[in-house]
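Just wondering, can you check both lines?
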Amino acid sequence: MKITVNIDGGSRGNPGPSAAAMVITDEEGQIMATKSKFLGPSFTNNFAEWSALEGAVNALVYLAGEHESLTAEVLADSELVVR
């Protein structure tokens, strides 16, 4: 099964109030998992991006236990995280 993972994190100010989110969809675009989280009042955008990836990895570990084979494509707008 091929899945797509979209992640994003951001902050208002750098540092500032920050949040992270992820969505995992299957090949038909059906949502398999979502998570969003307020991180706190004073974090950087990079911390928020990495937190989004961490949430996605945790969800992927769970999904891997439920499916025989998974291939994941991770989409992110953070150059730091993508590298």
The CA atoms of residues 6 and 79 lie 14 Å apart.
